[in-house]
Amino acid sequence: MMSAIVLPFRRTSPDATPVDVEDDTTAVPRPARTAAGVHVDGWGRDDAFVDRISAVARLRWDVAVGGAERLPARAGALVVVNARLFSLAPVFSALALGEHTGRPVRFVGRPDTAPVGALMRRLGGLLEHPDEVANALAAKEIVVMGTGRELHPQRVGRVDHRLIAAAVQERVRVHPAAALSSPMSRSARVEVGTEVNTGRSRRGPLAELELADAVRRRILQLMEELSGWRSAPLLDWLPQTGMGGD
Amino acid sequence: MAGQRVLISGMGGELGSRVASLLEEASWVGELTGIDADPPRRRLRRATFQRVPPAQHDRIVDTIREFDPHVLVHVATWEPDARAGTGTAKVLTDDAAMSVLGAAAECRALQHIVVRSGIEIYGRARGSLTRPDEDTPVNPTSEYGRMLAGIEATACTTGERVGVPVTRLRFAPVLGPHVPSPLGRVLRQPVVPFSLLADPPFTVVHDHDAAIAIAAAAAHRVDAPVNIVAPGSISTFQAIRRGNRIPIPLIGPEWPLFKRMSWLAGVPIPDHVEELFHRGRLADDSRAKALLGVAPETETVAVIDLLHAWESVIRIPARRAVA
Fold it and tell me: In this complex, which of B208, B282, B313 lies closest to A8 when CB atoms are compared?
Protein backbone atom coordinates (compact mmCIF):
# COMPACT_ATOMS: atom_id res chain seq x y z
CA MET A 1 0.00 0.00 0.00
CA MET A 2 1.36 3.40 -0.96
CA SER A 3 0.82 6.56 0.97
CA ALA A 4 0.95 10.11 -0.25
CA ILE A 5 1.21 13.28 1.72
CA VAL A 6 -1.65 15.57 0.80
CA LEU A 7 -1.02 19.19 1.53
CA PRO A 8 -3.80 20.91 3.43
CA PHE A 9 -4.87 23.19 0.59
CA ARG A 10 -8.14 23.20 -1.23
CA ARG A 11 -8.06 21.53 -4.59
CA THR A 12 -10.19 22.89 -7.40
CA SER A 13 -10.73 19.90 -9.67
CA PRO A 14 -8.53 17.01 -10.66
CA ASP A 15 -8.23 18.26 -14.27
CA ALA A 16 -7.72 21.89 -13.46
CA THR A 17 -4.54 23.51 -14.71
CA PRO A 18 -2.28 24.49 -11.82
CA VAL A 19 -2.46 28.22 -11.25
CA ASP A 20 0.82 29.98 -10.82
CA VAL A 21 1.10 32.16 -7.77
CA GLU A 22 1.95 35.11 -9.98
CA ASP A 23 -1.31 34.63 -11.87
CA ASP A 24 -3.36 34.59 -8.72
CA THR A 25 -6.46 36.64 -9.45
CA THR A 26 -6.56 37.90 -5.90
CA ALA A 27 -3.27 39.71 -6.45
CA VAL A 28 -4.95 42.64 -8.18
CA PRO A 29 -8.42 42.75 -6.69
CA ARG A 30 -11.22 43.91 -8.89
CA PRO A 31 -14.42 43.75 -6.86
CA ALA A 32 -17.33 42.46 -8.85
CA ARG A 33 -19.97 43.37 -6.35
CA THR A 34 -21.11 46.91 -5.76
CA ALA A 35 -21.21 48.51 -2.37
CA ALA A 36 -24.99 48.21 -2.09
CA GLY A 37 -26.16 48.35 1.47
CA VAL A 38 -23.16 50.29 2.70
CA HIS A 39 -23.73 53.98 3.16
CA VAL A 40 -21.01 55.07 5.54
CA ASP A 41 -18.59 57.57 4.09
CA GLY A 42 -15.00 58.25 5.10
CA TRP A 43 -16.16 60.27 8.12
CA GLY A 44 -18.76 57.80 9.37
CA ARG A 45 -21.76 59.66 7.95
CA ASP A 46 -24.51 57.30 6.90
CA ASP A 47 -26.57 58.57 3.93
CA ALA A 48 -29.41 56.13 4.54
CA PHE A 49 -29.59 57.06 8.20
CA VAL A 50 -29.56 60.77 7.34
CA ASP A 51 -32.45 60.23 4.90
CA ARG A 52 -34.48 58.45 7.57
CA ILE A 53 -33.80 61.07 10.23
CA SER A 54 -34.55 63.85 7.74
CA ALA A 55 -37.92 62.24 7.00
CA VAL A 56 -38.69 62.11 10.72
CA ALA A 57 -37.41 65.66 11.26
CA ARG A 58 -39.76 66.93 8.55
CA LEU A 59 -42.67 65.89 10.77
CA ARG A 60 -41.44 68.39 13.36
CA TRP A 61 -39.82 71.13 11.28
CA ASP A 62 -40.65 72.55 7.92
CA VAL A 63 -37.32 74.13 7.11
CA ALA A 64 -37.03 76.76 4.42
CA VAL A 65 -33.51 77.38 3.18
CA GLY A 66 -32.26 80.58 1.65
CA GLY A 67 -28.87 81.45 0.26
CA ALA A 68 -27.68 77.87 -0.15
CA GLU A 69 -26.49 78.76 -3.63
CA ARG A 70 -23.83 80.94 -2.00
CA LEU A 71 -22.04 77.85 -0.75
CA PRO A 72 -19.29 76.49 -3.01
CA ALA A 73 -20.20 73.61 -5.28
CA ARG A 74 -17.06 71.59 -4.61
CA ALA A 75 -14.75 73.41 -2.23
CA GLY A 76 -14.91 73.37 1.53
CA ALA A 77 -16.71 76.02 3.55
CA LEU A 78 -17.42 76.80 7.18
CA VAL A 79 -20.96 77.90 7.98
CA VAL A 80 -21.49 79.56 11.35
CA VAL A 81 -25.06 79.45 12.59
CA ASN A 82 -26.62 80.99 15.68
CA ALA A 83 -27.61 78.42 18.30
CA ARG A 84 -30.23 78.69 21.00
CA LEU A 85 -30.46 76.46 24.01
CA PHE A 86 -32.02 73.09 23.15
CA SER A 87 -32.64 74.13 19.53
CA LEU A 88 -30.21 71.73 17.75
CA ALA A 89 -29.71 74.50 15.19
CA PRO A 90 -26.40 73.17 13.76
CA VAL A 91 -27.97 69.73 13.29
CA PHE A 92 -31.12 70.76 11.47
CA SER A 93 -29.21 73.41 9.54
CA ALA A 94 -26.74 70.80 8.32
CA LEU A 95 -29.54 68.41 7.33
CA ALA A 96 -31.43 71.17 5.52
CA LEU A 97 -28.36 72.48 3.73
CA GLY A 98 -27.40 68.94 2.78
CA GLU A 99 -30.77 68.43 1.12
CA HIS A 100 -30.52 71.70 -0.77
CA THR A 101 -26.92 71.48 -1.90
CA GLY A 102 -26.89 67.76 -2.62
CA ARG A 103 -23.59 67.50 -0.74
CA PRO A 104 -22.98 65.85 2.61
CA VAL A 105 -22.92 68.67 5.15
CA ARG A 106 -21.29 68.03 8.51
CA PHE A 107 -21.87 69.77 11.80
CA VAL A 108 -19.62 70.40 14.76
CA GLY A 109 -20.54 69.34 18.25
CA ARG A 110 -21.00 65.60 18.59
CA PRO A 111 -19.98 64.10 21.90
CA ASP A 112 -17.45 61.26 21.87
CA THR A 113 -19.52 58.86 23.93
CA ALA A 114 -21.87 56.13 22.77
CA PRO A 115 -24.68 55.98 21.90
CA VAL A 116 -25.40 59.70 21.34
CA GLY A 117 -21.98 60.39 19.81
CA ALA A 118 -22.27 57.38 17.52
CA LEU A 119 -25.72 58.42 16.32
CA MET A 120 -24.58 61.98 15.69
CA ARG A 121 -21.54 60.73 13.78
CA ARG A 122 -23.97 58.84 11.52
CA LEU A 123 -25.71 62.17 10.92
CA GLY A 124 -22.43 63.84 9.99
CA GLY A 125 -21.33 65.07 13.41
CA LEU A 126 -17.75 66.10 14.06
CA LEU A 127 -15.97 66.64 17.34
CA GLU A 128 -15.67 70.22 18.54
CA HIS A 129 -11.93 70.24 17.98
CA PRO A 130 -10.06 72.67 15.71
CA ASP A 131 -7.98 69.88 14.13
CA GLU A 132 -11.10 67.86 13.38
CA VAL A 133 -12.70 70.86 11.67
CA ALA A 134 -9.46 71.67 9.83
CA ASN A 135 -9.21 68.10 8.53
CA ALA A 136 -12.79 68.21 7.28
CA LEU A 137 -12.30 71.57 5.59
CA ALA A 138 -9.06 70.34 4.02
CA ALA A 139 -11.05 67.43 2.63
CA LYS A 140 -13.35 69.99 0.92
CA GLU A 141 -16.31 69.37 3.19
CA ILE A 142 -19.01 71.86 4.15
CA VAL A 143 -19.05 72.15 7.93
CA VAL A 144 -21.70 73.84 10.05
CA MET A 145 -20.72 75.10 13.48
CA GLY A 146 -22.89 76.78 16.06
CA THR A 147 -22.20 79.93 18.00
CA GLY A 148 -22.27 79.86 21.79
CA ARG A 149 -25.77 79.02 23.00
CA GLU A 150 -28.09 81.80 24.07
CA LEU A 151 -31.53 81.63 25.63
CA HIS A 152 -32.80 84.83 24.05
CA PRO A 153 -33.81 84.30 20.41
CA GLN A 154 -32.44 87.66 19.26
CA ARG A 155 -28.98 87.29 20.73
CA VAL A 156 -25.99 85.60 19.19
CA GLY A 157 -23.49 83.80 21.37
CA ARG A 158 -19.75 83.90 21.14
CA VAL A 159 -18.13 82.48 18.00
CA ASP A 160 -15.31 80.10 18.87
CA HIS A 161 -12.27 81.66 17.20
CA ARG A 162 -10.32 78.38 17.47
CA LEU A 163 -12.73 76.80 14.99
CA ILE A 164 -12.62 79.89 12.80
CA ALA A 165 -8.83 79.52 12.85
CA ALA A 166 -9.27 76.15 11.15
CA ALA A 167 -11.00 77.87 8.23
CA VAL A 168 -8.31 80.56 8.10
CA GLN A 169 -5.63 77.89 8.11
CA GLU A 170 -7.27 75.92 5.30
CA ARG A 171 -8.13 79.12 3.37
CA VAL A 172 -11.81 78.27 2.96
CA ARG A 173 -14.78 80.61 2.97
CA VAL A 174 -16.67 81.41 6.16
CA HIS A 175 -20.39 82.04 5.76
CA PRO A 176 -22.73 83.34 8.45
CA ALA A 177 -26.15 81.74 8.72
CA ALA A 178 -29.23 82.57 10.72
CA ALA A 179 -31.37 79.69 11.89
CA LEU A 180 -34.78 80.53 13.23
CA SER A 181 -37.26 78.12 14.68
CA SER A 182 -40.07 78.32 17.13
CA PRO A 183 -41.19 75.80 19.71
CA MET A 184 -44.77 76.74 18.84
CA SER A 185 -44.72 76.09 15.11
CA ARG A 186 -43.27 73.81 12.46
CA SER A 187 -41.83 76.66 10.45
CA ALA A 188 -38.08 77.06 10.59
CA ARG A 189 -35.68 78.91 8.38
CA VAL A 190 -32.00 78.76 7.60
CA GLU A 191 -30.61 81.74 5.75
CA VAL A 192 -27.01 81.60 4.56
CA GLY A 193 -25.28 84.92 4.11
CA THR A 194 -22.48 85.88 1.79
CA GLU A 195 -18.89 85.10 2.63
CA VAL A 196 -17.48 87.15 5.48
CA ASN A 197 -14.25 88.92 4.85
CA THR A 198 -12.74 91.36 7.31
CA GLY A 199 -10.98 93.19 4.53
CA ARG A 200 -7.76 93.31 6.52
CA SER A 201 -4.69 91.24 6.03
CA ARG A 202 -3.34 89.90 9.31
CA ARG A 203 -0.32 87.69 9.75
CA GLY A 204 -1.10 86.46 13.25
CA PRO A 205 -4.03 85.12 15.28
CA LEU A 206 -5.78 88.48 15.08
CA ALA A 207 -7.15 87.30 11.73
CA GLU A 208 -9.40 84.67 13.29
CA LEU A 209 -10.43 86.90 16.20
CA GLU A 210 -11.54 89.66 13.86
CA LEU A 211 -13.20 87.18 11.54
CA ALA A 212 -15.09 85.62 14.45
CA ASP A 213 -16.35 89.03 15.54
CA ALA A 214 -17.33 89.92 11.99
CA VAL A 215 -19.22 86.64 11.58
CA ARG A 216 -21.10 87.27 14.81
CA ARG A 217 -22.13 90.75 13.65
CA ARG A 218 -23.28 89.39 10.29
CA ILE A 219 -25.38 86.71 11.95
CA LEU A 220 -27.08 89.37 14.10
CA GLN A 221 -27.71 91.39 10.97
CA LEU A 222 -29.23 88.38 9.22
CA MET A 223 -31.46 87.68 12.19
CA GLU A 224 -32.71 91.24 12.24
CA GLU A 225 -33.50 90.92 8.55
CA LEU A 226 -35.40 87.73 9.25
CA SER A 227 -37.47 89.51 11.93
CA GLY A 228 -36.63 87.09 14.67
CA TRP A 229 -38.65 84.04 15.50
CA ARG A 230 -41.87 85.56 14.07
CA SER A 231 -40.55 85.09 10.55
CA ALA A 232 -42.15 82.44 8.45
CA PRO A 233 -41.64 81.43 4.85
CA LEU A 234 -45.04 82.86 3.90
CA LEU A 235 -43.91 86.36 4.90
CA ASP A 236 -40.54 86.23 3.25
CA TRP A 237 -41.76 87.78 0.00
CA LEU A 238 -42.57 91.04 1.80
CA PRO A 239 -39.95 93.70 0.96
CA GLN A 240 -39.62 94.99 4.53
CA THR A 241 -38.22 91.72 5.73
CA GLY A 242 -35.11 92.48 3.71
CA MET A 243 -34.65 88.86 2.71
CA GLY A 244 -31.83 88.26 0.33
CA GLY A 245 -30.65 91.81 0.62
CA ASP A 246 -27.28 91.22 2.15
CA MET B 1 19.78 56.34 -8.88
CA ALA B 2 20.10 53.09 -10.84
CA GLY B 3 21.81 50.10 -9.31
CA GLN B 4 20.63 50.71 -5.76
CA ARG B 5 20.97 47.96 -3.19
CA VAL B 6 17.69 47.36 -1.37
CA LEU B 7 17.28 45.26 1.75
CA ILE B 8 13.86 44.09 2.93
CA SER B 9 13.54 42.91 6.51
CA GLY B 10 10.47 40.72 6.84
CA MET B 11 10.64 39.42 3.27
CA GLY B 12 9.21 36.08 4.34
CA GLY B 13 5.78 37.49 5.13
CA GLU B 14 3.09 37.97 2.54
CA LEU B 15 3.56 41.74 2.50
CA GLY B 16 7.36 41.51 2.34
CA SER B 17 7.17 38.97 -0.50
CA ARG B 18 4.82 41.19 -2.48
CA VAL B 19 7.11 44.18 -1.97
CA ALA B 20 10.07 42.10 -3.14
CA SER B 21 8.28 41.01 -6.31
CA LEU B 22 7.35 44.64 -7.07
CA LEU B 23 10.90 45.89 -6.43
CA GLU B 24 12.28 43.16 -8.68
CA GLU B 25 10.52 44.92 -11.55
CA ALA B 26 11.82 48.37 -10.60
CA SER B 27 14.55 49.63 -12.91
CA TRP B 28 16.33 51.60 -10.19
CA VAL B 29 16.87 48.52 -8.03
CA GLY B 30 20.20 46.81 -8.56
CA GLU B 31 20.58 44.15 -5.91
CA LEU B 32 17.70 43.02 -3.76
CA THR B 33 17.99 40.88 -0.68
CA GLY B 34 15.81 40.07 2.28
CA ILE B 35 15.98 38.59 5.74
CA ASP B 36 13.29 36.97 7.83
CA ALA B 37 12.62 34.05 10.10
CA ASP B 38 10.56 32.34 7.38
CA PRO B 39 11.25 31.94 3.65
CA PRO B 40 9.37 34.12 1.12
CA ARG B 41 5.88 33.09 0.17
CA ARG B 42 6.19 34.00 -3.50
CA ARG B 43 8.45 33.01 -6.36
CA LEU B 44 11.20 35.59 -6.55
CA ARG B 45 13.53 35.68 -9.54
CA ARG B 46 16.20 38.25 -8.72
CA ALA B 47 16.05 38.61 -4.97
CA THR B 48 18.23 36.68 -2.60
CA PHE B 49 17.10 35.65 0.86
CA GLN B 50 18.80 35.03 4.20
CA ARG B 51 16.86 33.09 6.79
CA VAL B 52 17.72 34.64 10.15
CA PRO B 53 15.56 34.59 13.30
CA PRO B 54 15.05 38.07 14.84
CA ALA B 55 16.79 37.09 18.07
CA GLN B 56 20.11 36.38 16.30
CA HIS B 57 21.37 39.94 16.43
CA ASP B 58 24.92 39.13 15.40
CA ARG B 59 23.88 37.30 12.24
CA ILE B 60 21.47 40.08 11.31
CA VAL B 61 24.13 42.73 11.82
CA ASP B 62 26.70 40.76 9.80
CA THR B 63 24.26 40.11 6.97
CA ILE B 64 23.15 43.72 6.70
CA ARG B 65 26.64 45.21 7.02
CA GLU B 66 27.96 42.84 4.40
CA PHE B 67 25.18 43.81 1.98
CA ASP B 68 25.59 47.55 2.79
CA PRO B 69 22.14 48.65 1.48
CA HIS B 70 21.28 52.04 0.01
CA VAL B 71 17.63 51.59 0.95
CA LEU B 72 16.29 49.67 3.94
CA VAL B 73 12.66 48.56 3.86
CA HIS B 74 11.68 47.42 7.35
CA VAL B 75 8.48 45.37 7.19
CA ALA B 76 9.31 42.97 10.01
CA THR B 77 6.44 43.81 12.33
CA TRP B 78 4.49 41.17 14.21
CA GLU B 79 0.89 42.22 14.77
CA PRO B 80 -0.36 40.81 18.07
CA ASP B 81 -2.36 37.60 17.64
CA ALA B 82 -1.68 37.49 13.91
CA ARG B 83 1.11 34.92 13.97
CA ALA B 84 2.17 35.17 17.60
CA GLY B 85 0.57 36.14 20.88
CA THR B 86 0.87 39.70 22.11
CA GLY B 87 3.89 39.05 24.36
CA THR B 88 5.84 37.12 21.74
CA ALA B 89 4.91 39.57 19.00
CA LYS B 90 6.20 42.44 21.12
CA VAL B 91 9.55 40.72 21.73
CA LEU B 92 9.99 39.68 18.08
CA THR B 93 9.10 43.14 16.77
CA ASP B 94 11.42 44.85 19.20
CA ASP B 95 14.26 42.42 18.44
CA ALA B 96 13.88 42.88 14.71
CA ALA B 97 13.62 46.67 14.89
CA MET B 98 16.67 47.08 17.12
CA SER B 99 18.84 44.64 15.17
CA VAL B 100 17.88 45.72 11.67
CA LEU B 101 17.78 49.47 12.21
CA GLY B 102 20.87 49.35 14.38
CA ALA B 103 22.79 47.42 11.76
CA ALA B 104 21.57 49.70 8.98
CA ALA B 105 22.91 52.69 10.86
CA GLU B 106 26.38 51.19 10.55
CA CYS B 107 26.15 50.94 6.77
CA ARG B 108 27.98 53.71 4.98
CA ALA B 109 25.90 53.46 1.80
CA LEU B 110 22.55 53.91 3.58
CA GLN B 111 20.48 56.67 2.00
CA HIS B 112 16.89 55.96 2.97
CA ILE B 113 14.79 54.01 5.49
CA VAL B 114 11.19 52.92 5.00
CA VAL B 115 9.37 51.46 8.01
CA ARG B 116 5.99 49.81 8.25
CA SER B 117 3.76 51.40 10.86
CA GLY B 118 0.01 51.61 11.35
CA ILE B 119 -2.79 54.04 12.09
CA GLU B 120 -3.14 52.31 15.47
CA ILE B 121 -0.36 54.71 16.46
CA TYR B 122 -2.87 57.59 16.73
CA GLY B 123 -4.86 55.76 19.38
CA ARG B 124 -8.57 56.08 20.01
CA ALA B 125 -8.66 57.86 23.33
CA ARG B 126 -11.77 59.79 24.32
CA GLY B 127 -11.92 62.95 22.22
CA SER B 128 -9.41 61.76 19.62
CA LEU B 129 -9.94 62.95 16.05
CA THR B 130 -12.29 61.01 13.77
CA ARG B 131 -9.84 61.09 10.84
CA PRO B 132 -6.35 61.86 12.13
CA ASP B 133 -3.90 63.08 9.53
CA GLU B 134 -0.13 62.79 9.69
CA ASP B 135 0.18 65.96 11.81
CA THR B 136 -1.99 64.51 14.57
CA PRO B 137 0.10 63.79 17.66
CA VAL B 138 0.88 60.14 18.28
CA ASN B 139 -1.06 58.83 21.27
CA PRO B 140 -1.30 55.02 21.10
CA THR B 141 -3.94 53.39 23.28
CA SER B 142 -3.28 49.75 22.41
CA GLU B 143 -0.28 47.45 22.71
CA TYR B 144 0.14 47.28 18.94
CA GLY B 145 0.00 51.07 18.72
CA ARG B 146 2.73 51.34 21.33
CA MET B 147 4.84 48.78 19.43
CA LEU B 148 4.50 50.83 16.25
CA ALA B 149 5.35 54.03 18.09
CA GLY B 150 8.48 52.29 19.33
CA ILE B 151 9.50 51.27 15.82
CA GLU B 152 8.95 54.79 14.49
CA ALA B 153 10.92 56.31 17.36
CA THR B 154 13.84 53.93 16.77
CA ALA B 155 13.78 54.57 13.03
CA CYS B 156 13.60 58.35 13.45
CA THR B 157 16.46 58.34 15.93
CA THR B 158 18.51 56.23 13.52
CA GLY B 159 17.65 58.50 10.62
CA GLU B 160 18.61 61.63 12.57
CA ARG B 161 21.95 60.16 13.67
CA VAL B 162 22.88 58.95 10.21
CA GLY B 163 21.28 61.85 8.36
CA VAL B 164 18.95 59.90 6.09
CA PRO B 165 15.21 60.38 5.43
CA VAL B 166 12.80 58.00 7.16
CA THR B 167 9.43 57.26 5.57
CA ARG B 168 6.92 55.97 8.12
CA LEU B 169 4.05 54.26 6.33
CA ARG B 170 1.04 54.14 8.64
CA PHE B 171 -1.26 51.45 7.30
CA ALA B 172 -4.87 50.76 8.11
CA PRO B 173 -5.35 47.08 9.09
CA VAL B 174 -3.86 45.14 6.17
CA LEU B 175 -6.09 42.40 4.78
CA GLY B 176 -5.25 39.90 2.08
CA PRO B 177 -5.89 36.29 1.18
CA HIS B 178 -2.68 35.12 2.81
CA VAL B 179 -2.11 37.87 5.36
CA PRO B 180 -2.51 36.68 8.95
CA SER B 181 -4.79 39.28 10.48
CA PRO B 182 -6.71 39.05 13.76
CA LEU B 183 -9.33 41.46 12.37
CA GLY B 184 -9.82 39.40 9.22
CA ARG B 185 -10.01 36.22 11.26
CA VAL B 186 -12.71 37.62 13.54
CA LEU B 187 -14.78 38.97 10.65
CA ARG B 188 -14.70 35.60 8.88
CA GLN B 189 -16.17 33.73 11.82
CA PRO B 190 -19.76 32.54 11.41
CA VAL B 191 -20.80 34.58 14.45
CA VAL B 192 -19.24 38.00 14.92
CA PRO B 193 -19.77 40.46 17.79
CA PHE B 194 -20.30 44.17 17.32
CA SER B 195 -20.87 47.11 19.62
CA LEU B 196 -24.59 47.82 19.56
CA LEU B 197 -24.23 51.30 21.05
CA ALA B 198 -21.32 52.47 18.91
CA ASP B 199 -21.06 50.42 15.69
CA PRO B 200 -18.20 52.68 14.59
CA PRO B 201 -16.77 53.02 11.08
CA PHE B 202 -13.34 51.71 10.21
CA THR B 203 -11.13 51.40 7.18
CA VAL B 204 -8.65 48.78 5.99
CA VAL B 205 -6.17 48.40 3.16
CA HIS B 206 -5.62 45.55 0.72
CA ASP B 207 -2.19 43.96 0.94
CA HIS B 208 -1.52 44.57 -2.76
CA ASP B 209 -2.16 48.30 -2.31
CA ALA B 210 0.01 48.25 0.80
CA ALA B 211 2.85 46.60 -1.12
CA ILE B 212 2.57 49.17 -3.92
CA ALA B 213 2.80 51.95 -1.35
CA ILE B 214 5.92 50.44 0.21
CA ALA B 215 7.57 50.01 -3.18
CA ALA B 216 6.72 53.62 -4.07
CA ALA B 217 8.04 54.84 -0.72
CA ALA B 218 11.32 53.06 -1.37
CA ALA B 219 11.68 55.01 -4.61
CA HIS B 220 10.65 58.41 -3.18
CA ARG B 221 12.91 59.78 -0.47
CA VAL B 222 10.19 61.22 1.76
CA ASP B 223 11.13 62.11 5.31
CA ALA B 224 7.65 62.07 6.82
CA PRO B 225 4.86 59.82 8.03
CA VAL B 226 2.27 58.88 5.38
CA ASN B 227 -1.15 57.36 6.06
CA ILE B 228 -2.07 54.52 3.72
CA VAL B 229 -5.77 53.65 3.94
CA ALA B 230 -8.34 52.42 1.46
CA PRO B 231 -10.95 54.91 0.25
CA GLY B 232 -14.25 54.89 2.12
CA SER B 233 -15.18 53.17 5.33
CA ILE B 234 -17.58 50.59 6.65
CA SER B 235 -19.19 50.02 10.01
CA THR B 236 -18.61 46.79 11.88
CA PHE B 237 -22.25 45.74 11.53
CA GLN B 238 -22.18 46.36 7.79
CA ALA B 239 -18.91 44.43 7.47
CA ILE B 240 -20.49 41.49 9.24
CA ARG B 241 -23.67 41.58 7.17
CA ARG B 242 -21.81 41.81 3.87
CA GLY B 243 -20.29 38.46 4.65
CA ASN B 244 -23.67 37.01 5.64
CA ARG B 245 -22.31 36.36 9.10
CA ILE B 246 -24.49 36.39 12.20
CA PRO B 247 -24.02 39.65 14.11
CA ILE B 248 -24.07 39.39 17.88
CA PRO B 249 -24.90 42.75 19.47
CA LEU B 250 -22.91 43.40 22.62
CA ILE B 251 -23.38 46.33 24.96
CA GLY B 252 -20.26 46.23 27.09
CA PRO B 253 -19.95 43.94 30.11
CA GLU B 254 -20.18 40.77 28.01
CA TRP B 255 -17.17 41.66 25.82
CA PRO B 256 -14.56 40.07 28.14
CA LEU B 257 -16.58 36.83 28.18
CA PHE B 258 -16.92 36.85 24.39
CA LYS B 259 -13.19 37.52 24.03
CA ARG B 260 -12.36 34.50 26.15
CA MET B 261 -14.76 32.29 24.22
CA SER B 262 -13.29 33.55 20.97
CA TRP B 263 -9.76 32.85 22.23
CA LEU B 264 -10.79 29.29 23.12
CA ALA B 265 -12.17 28.91 19.60
CA GLY B 266 -8.75 29.88 18.19
CA VAL B 267 -9.71 33.41 17.23
CA PRO B 268 -8.10 35.74 19.74
CA ILE B 269 -9.23 39.37 19.77
CA PRO B 270 -6.26 41.58 20.73
CA ASP B 271 -6.84 44.97 22.31
CA HIS B 272 -6.29 46.96 19.11
CA VAL B 273 -8.99 44.94 17.33
CA GLU B 274 -11.33 45.31 20.31
CA GLU B 275 -10.64 49.03 20.21
CA LEU B 276 -11.57 49.09 16.52
CA PHE B 277 -14.86 47.35 17.31
CA HIS B 278 -15.65 49.89 20.06
CA ARG B 279 -14.20 53.14 18.77
CA GLY B 280 -13.61 52.63 15.04
CA ARG B 281 -10.45 53.43 13.12
CA LEU B 282 -10.23 55.96 10.30
CA ALA B 283 -7.42 58.12 8.99
CA ASP B 284 -6.88 60.84 6.43
CA ASP B 285 -4.88 59.68 3.42
CA SER B 286 -4.88 62.79 1.30
CA ARG B 287 -1.09 63.15 1.38
CA ALA B 288 -0.23 59.69 0.05
CA LYS B 289 -0.80 60.58 -3.59
CA ALA B 290 1.16 63.81 -3.34
CA LEU B 291 4.13 62.34 -1.47
CA LEU B 292 4.40 58.86 -2.97
CA GLY B 293 2.58 59.23 -6.28
CA VAL B 294 0.31 56.32 -5.43
CA ALA B 295 -2.74 55.78 -3.24
CA PRO B 296 -4.78 52.68 -2.47
CA GLU B 297 -7.40 51.99 -5.13
CA THR B 298 -9.37 49.12 -3.67
CA GLU B 299 -12.16 50.57 -1.56
CA THR B 300 -12.76 49.45 1.99
CA VAL B 301 -16.06 47.81 1.10
CA ALA B 302 -14.40 45.91 -1.75
CA VAL B 303 -11.62 44.68 0.55
CA ILE B 304 -14.23 43.44 3.03
CA ASP B 305 -16.09 41.69 0.19
CA LEU B 306 -12.85 40.05 -0.92
CA LEU B 307 -12.12 39.04 2.66
CA HIS B 308 -15.39 37.15 2.81
CA ALA B 309 -14.84 35.69 -0.66
CA TRP B 310 -11.36 34.30 -0.07
CA GLU B 311 -11.13 30.54 0.08
CA SER B 312 -10.86 28.89 3.44
CA VAL B 313 -8.13 26.39 4.24
CA ILE B 314 -9.68 22.97 4.35
CA ARG B 315 -7.94 20.53 6.65
CA ILE B 316 -7.35 17.19 5.04
CA PRO B 317 -5.81 14.29 6.93
CA ALA B 318 -2.05 14.20 6.40
CA ARG B 319 -1.91 10.69 5.02
CA ARG B 320 -4.32 8.90 2.78
CA ALA B 321 -4.09 5.52 1.12
CA VAL B 322 -3.87 5.92 -2.66
CA ALA B 323 -3.23 2.35 -3.79
Answer: B313
